[in-house]
Specification:
Organism: Phenylobacterium koreense
Number of helices: 2
Helix content: 10-25%
Radius of gyration: 12 Å
Oligomer: single chain
Number of strands: 3
Protein name: DUF1272 domain-containing protein
Distance between the termini: 30 Å
Shape: elongated
Order of helices and strands: EEHEH
Strand content: 5-15%
Strand order of the largest sheet: 2-1-3
Largest sheet: 3 strands, antiparallel
């Protein structure tokens, strides 16, 4: 089951379950589109993989399969650069 993290791991922006600008890598690292395309230049700083739009879980399933409420501490830089 996809985790649906609640915020961008780079800037901390809230990314609710229906956020159209949420991006994930294959390990479910989660970023907003602005960070994924901007500072990260399309590569996940954790694994080096690319990003895809995060699927939106239908509202009818959120009660049974809720999004994570555990926020990820923001802070990132492209791979190969120090934070």
């Amino acid at each position: 089951m996809l985790l649906l993290k609640p915020n961008c791991e780079c800037c901390g922006k809230d990314l609710p379950p229906a956020a159209g600008d949420a991006r994930i890598c294959s390990f479910e690292c989660t970023f907003c589109a602005a960070c994924a395309e901007g500072v990260l230049q399309g590569a996940c700083p954790n694994c080096g993989g690319g990003f895809a739009p995060r699927p939106i879980r239908p509202a009818s399933l959120l009660a049974r399969y809720p999004a994570s409420s555990e926020r990820v501490v923001p802070g990132c830089s492209p791979i190969g650069e120090a934070d």
